[in-house]
Design goal:
- By secondary structure, this protein is mostly beta strands.
- It contains 3 helices and 31 strands.
- Strands 3, 4, 6, 7 and 8 form a 5-stranded antiparallel β-sheet that branches. Strands 11, 12, 14, 15 and 16 form a 5-stranded antiparallel β-sheet that branches. Strands 19, 20, 22, 23 and 24 form a 5-stranded antiparallel β-sheet that branches.
- Helix 2 packs antiparallel against helix 3.
- The longest helix has 26 residues.
- The N and C termini lie far apart (156 Å).
Length: 453
């Protein structure tokens, strides 16, 4: 220690702490006469070893890079080039402040905001959260937590809130400085659930419609194979569209749908499930029959909603069936075939989207040349019979035979020849008419008797 003299700097009469931070302490003192410089000493304990940490010409010194919540001890002495050190000041001490948090994230929901901040060392026993609706307004303490996250609930929709946080050390009863300030905005009011209903369009499409909800940005449509779900989003609209046609579906299948409105990132309540079943493209019942030696006629029943029908043919029942034609009708004549040949057929309906299952196999064999009989006469057609012929013809009975009939005609003819003499030229014409008429009646009677067997 320097020996006091008239030129030696005096002892600093005041020394104190001008500022305390979590990692810095600023020490200040009154100026001293005859001091060109000031030596600053620091110790980790009051009675410990003091180490000179700086020389300054100003009556203050800021010590930085310190540990949070730790005590530090200081004293100062004046110095000049002629006489050296003056007497040391009294000891002053200070504890660094608790480290302040730093808000890292803040997110807003429909009616809540979550604030996250950095973790403070073990000196922080709790965190105090403050809120204001204005950045320069009065901040109010809204909650205390030991976690480095806080959820502020029950907030108004579509409102901005501002936050900062302080850490607190219970042992020493000290707070940190305030953290950085950050803000978030709550979401919009959650839209109500629409009323949705689904209707079948065809075998692969279903139309979903719902009522419009005011103030939404759009709608999200979900589909599932089961009423209980899970549901997957299949469409999102960005306007007040209130219908959607779901295409490319499986035929004869039930699908379930839900619709919800949304505003920005806030999705509303979903509608109750609605369902519809795609149509089934029916399976025709096919029949086939020969129509001649080179053609076969096919017929089948009408299939609801069918657009047209595909016709398939094969030379073997279990062979490969090739499509030979498409028709809008429920009958088809297959021509240009080989005679005496069996052909196998199948038919499938098409509704413009899906093709239904093929019918069961129907078969037919083309006719053989020369085996086709004459066409049947119209049973309502009767031959003309003159009065003369009616008198000359005996009633047909089961025992009548053509030869006996012919003998009777011949006898009558001979008798008339004898009686009429020169009228023999007229009688042959009459005989011819009678024979022809009798022959037609006989042939007709014979066919009728045969048809009843």
């Amino acid at each position: 220690m320097t020996v006091a003299s008239a030129a030696v700097p005096e002892k600093p009469t005041y020394i104190g702490i001008a500022e305390i931070g979590s990692s810095n302490i600023e020490v200040a003192w009154s100026p001293v006469a005859n001091a060109d410089y000031y030596y600053v000493f620091k110790s980790a304990s009051e009675n410990g070893v003091y180490v000179m940490i700086d020389v300054t010409s100003q009556p203050k010194f800021q010590d930085t890079g310190l540990e949070s919540m730790k005590m530090y001890y200081y004293k100062v002495a004046g110095y000049n080039e002629t006489d050296g050190y003056g007497p040391e000041s009294d000891i002053t001490s200070a504890r660094t402040a608790l480290m302040e948090p730093y808000i890292t994230a803040i997110t807003g929901g429909p009616s809540s905001i979550i604030v996250d901040w950095s973790y403070i060392n073990y000196y922080a026993d709790s965190y105090w959260v403050y809120k204001s609706e204005f950045p320069s307004g009065m901040f109010v303490h809204i909650g205390t937590t030991t976690e480095n996250r806080f959820e502020d609930t029950g907030l108004g929709y579509d409102t901005t809130y501002y936050y900062y946080v302080k850490s607190y050390n219970e042992t020493h009863g000290v707070y940190s400085d305030r953290s950085n300030m950050d803000a978030a905005k709550t979401g919009h009011l959650k839209p109500i659930a629409p009323i949705a209903y689904a209707t079948t369009i065809n075998s692969s499409a279903i139309k979903i419609e719902w009522n419009d909800i005011a103030s939404v940005d759009g709608y999200r449509l979900y589909r599932s194979d089961y009423r209980e779900g899970p549901y997957s989003q299949i469409k999102q609209t960005t306007s007040h569209i209130t219908e959607y046609i779901d295409e490319g579906l499986e035929q004869s299948t039930t699908y379930y749908y839900k619709v919800s409105g949304y505003v920005h990132t806030v999705e509303g309540h979903p509608s109750d499930p609605t369902d519809a079943t795609t149509l089934y493209v029916g399976k025709p019942v096919l029949i086939a029959e020969a129509a001649g030696t080179s053609s076969i006629r096919l017929e089948w029943n009408v299939i609801d909603d069918a657009f047209d029908y595909d016709v398939y043919r094969s030379l073997t029942e279990n062979g490969v069936y090739e499509k030979i034609d498409t028709t809008e009708f429920v009958e088809y004549l297959d021509t240009g075939l080989e005679h005496s040949t069996t052909y196998y057929y199948k038919v499938a309906a098409y509704d413009g989207v899906n093709r239904g299952a093929q019918s069961e196999t129907a078969e037919a064999t083309t006719q053989t040349p020369g085996t086709t009989g004459p066409s049947k006469p119209d049973p309502e057609t009767k031959p003309e019979v003159t009065p003369e012929a009616e008198d000359s013809v005996k009633p047909m009975t089961a025992g009548n035979e053509i030869p006996a009939f012919e003998t009777q005609v011949e006898d009558n003819a001979q008798s008339n020849d004898v009686k009429n003499g020169s009228a023999g030229f007229v009688l042959p014409i009459f005989l011819i008419l009678a024979i022809l008429t009798t022959g037609v009646l006989y042939a007709r009677a014979k066919r009728r008797v045969g048809s009843k067997k």
